[in-house]
Amino acid sequence: MVGVQDTTDLGKDLHRTYSKVMERSTKTHCPGCGALLEETDGPVHRYMEGSPACFMLFNQILACEYSDPALLPTHRLTVDTYAVQHSGEARTRQQIQSVGLHLARLGLQLERPTPPNETNDIMLGLGKHKLTLEYIEPPKHFEMTVADVADFAGRSQHSDKVRAWALSAWEDWSDHHEYILSWAARWF
Ligand SMILES: [Zn+2]
Asked: What's the pTM?
């Protein structure tokens, strides 16, 4: 039987161990997607708001996609999903247009898939109307982030993981599905 004294000592030991672990690790939440990642120095995207650590994982995934033609259809989903999770406050004209276009692309790919060359035409067509996009408030929380995909980059599960991440992010934006799909439908 463990006495009161022993339990207290055990608690202290655990606390000391925990404190040491915490001293070594300085994890921070990405301001865009919320992923909790080890802090790193490094570049960030020009207008998408994310931590350097998160942007680094995104670039690792992209590098795998650039080097494998079979991942080309997945590449589009990766870019759009990352973009809709890093829109910042989506207040500037550039952010409003970015998040709107990427969300429309994401929704069309997931809800109304078309052959790749048709999809390209639709995407280019949408870009011509980006000035008509209105502000939409980003979700407060994302269920899945780039951190859930990065470990699978370049492996056999790459496409499946990106697709699950894309579906999850699209679902997180569900308040605006109707707006963005009807906006897109006006132009084709
Ligand atoms: Zn992020």
From this structure: 0.84
